[in-house]
Design a protein that fits this description.
This protein has 319 residues and is an alpha/beta fold. Helices cover 39% and strands 18% of the residues. It has one domain: Rossmann fold, CATH 3.40.50. An 8-stranded mixed beta sheet has the order 5-6-2-7-1-8-9-12, with helices on both faces. The chain starts with 22 loop residues before the first helix and ends with a helix.
Length: 319
């Protein structure tokens, strides 16, 4: 079978003719399947942070829920292989991925919100995933190409902290990421690392949607006085210095922690709170970003024009 003749939507593993194909033909079919699947998704966002503990997954979960509440078709890819928390925070920790000849069926929270995570494949939630970069890259390729995402308005990819294997793999595989959303807290240590995430995005020619300042202030429930637990304004200052948009400030609210532990998006449990309103504004700015016809062209391109550099870096890491 020639590479050009295989136009099936099924994966090679479920195809009865896979024995007649060479490895090169299987790879060509895999690339075509990835292209077809991603072609049905209008916009793709990467949610990043330079370091852990800044609430990046909380932002990804509530941004996805906000967009879904607005009537959008949304998918969430939990790309944190070693610490997949998306299912727990959405109340889907008992969910499992189902396979079919056509592909992998994602787990749904709402009819218009689909989720894929490594957590859905673990038989024991306490089992660690001990994988090097190449294995993670292959897993991401399957999650992106073989999952039945369908027609989506947005795919939100929740990345682990840092600028290593996972963001490089996602950037290479999707190839036309609309933008990165950088999450930070106002403290200097977090801001230092968040600036690296902005620089990473620029290096691989992915537009920066903006910076989200999380845990920016706390209102005492007893006296109402505002307390700056991790300072305030650092994220906005960094956005100004780096010449990227400031998407908004999310105040520290203990109910966000409680909602996450219960598996309910905060924007759904307490929609009228100050933090939920901030998420709503961030969602609007993300929609405005992709609806702005110049959002990609103004920063070079939405895809990775420097893809050869990414491939070079990936090869270097696998040696």
């Amino acid at each position: 079978m020639s590479q050009e003749s295989c136009n099936k939507d099924s994966t090679c593993e479920t195809c009865g003719e896979q024995g007649s194909c060479s490895e090169a033909e299987k790879e060509a079919h895999s690339e075509e399947l990835l292209k077809k699947t991603m072609g049905r998704i209008k916009h793709k966002f990467m949610v990043m942070s330079g370091k852990g503990g800044v609430g990046k997954t909380t932002v990804a979960v509530n941004l996805a829920a906000t967009l879904a509440k607005n009537g959008c078709q949304v998918g969430v890819l939990d790309a944190d292989v070693h610490g997949p928390n998306i299912p727990k925070m959405l109340g889907l920790d008992q969910g499992k991925l189902d396979g079919s000849p056509e592909g992998i069926k994602p787990v749904s929270l709402y009819p218009n919100l689909k989720v894929v995570s490594m957590a859905f494949l673990l038989t024991d939630p306490d089992s660690p995933v001990v994988w090097r970069g190449p294995l993670k890259h292959q897993a991401f390729k399957q999650f992106l190409s073989e999952v039945l995402w369908g027609d989506l308005d947005y795919l939100i990819v929740d990345l682990p902290p840092g600028t290593g294997d996972e963001p490089l793999s996602i950037a290479q595989l999707i190839n036309d990421v609309d933008g990165s959303i950088i999450v930070t807290t106002p403290q200097d240590v977090a801001l230092l690392d968040s600036r690296k995430a902005v620089s990473f995005s620029r290096m691989v020619k992915i537009p920066v949607v903006g910076i989200v300042e999380n845990m920016g202030g706390f209102s005492c429930p007893h006296c109402g006085k505002s307390i700056d637990l991790f300072k305030v304004g650092g994220g906005e200052k960094a956005a100004r210095e780096l010449n990227v948009p400031f998407l908004g400030r999310i105040v520290f609210d203990p109910e966000i922690v409680q909602s996450s532990d219960r598996g309910v998006p905060f924007v759904e449990s307490i929609p009228d709170s100050k933090a939920a309103r901030a998420f709503s504004e961030i969602g609007k700015k993300c929609e405005e970003f992709v609806n702005n016809s110049g959002s990609k062209s103004s920063q070079g391109e939405g895809g990775i024009t420097g893809i050869s550099k990414v491939k070079e870096m990936l090869k270097g890491k696998s040696r």
